[in-house]
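Run log, item B.
One chain of 261 residues. Sequence copied directly from the ordering sheet:
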Amino acid sequence: MSPLILALLGTTFTFLATALGAATVFIFKKDITPSLHRAFLGFAAGVMIAASIWSLLIPAMEMAPEQGQSEWLPAAGGLILGAAFLLLLDRLLPHLHLSSEKPEGPVSSFRRTTLLVLAVTLHNIPEGLAVGLAFGLAGGSSPMSLSGALALSLGMALQNFPEGAAISLPLKKEGVSNGKSFFYGALSGVVEPLAGVTGVLLAGGISSLMPWMLAFAAGAMLYVVVEEMIPEAHLGEHSHLGTLSVLAGFLVMMILDTAIG
């Protein structure tokens, strides 16, 4: 199957997981508790850390020597570029995190709901890029197998489900209707197929870019984890739940990638 088609299918699956999580707005009458919110964020952070290592950085380092490149340079350089890219988006795109009252980025006239959706959309760009590249590589000649891409997709889907709920339920609490809350929650995941397909199109024609693109996605994901997810997972007086959730997410993704991938 075409790498582009595989990338589209894989990222569509993770998008549907986000939409399914957003659909919880029709089930729960109230917002999720702060403890559950910390657990969701912690689990997602752990999954993204493990995926960055096993599904992205290690394949990038394995692929580079086969293409006559240094083993460490594409991994290190791509990671730095990915983090810098997210830092730039953080500065250029107006957004509002769930735990904040003051928007970040340039001043805009966007409504609060729009700013909240844009914040979650920032997370989904590197996730979509990672899954899209994994499936794109599985469709070509690379160290990454289709089972490895499936493991990454499943891991991202597991953390996208609570992420969809974490955006739609707070919107409902702010007075937004169930339908609109679901729409905004699902909309935040639309960027994943777009990012995945774009990544494959950019790197597909030049194989030497693939190690850099994998590490780029890893750097962007790690930026999101360190900048927002882990700090928000430790909100409150006690941080044990957030810490244990990070470890649980890391463990689940590590097992998925090593046992299935």
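Observations after the first pass:
- The chain has a mean pLDDT of 85.
- The chain is about 75% helix and 0% strand.
Flagged for discussion on Thursday.
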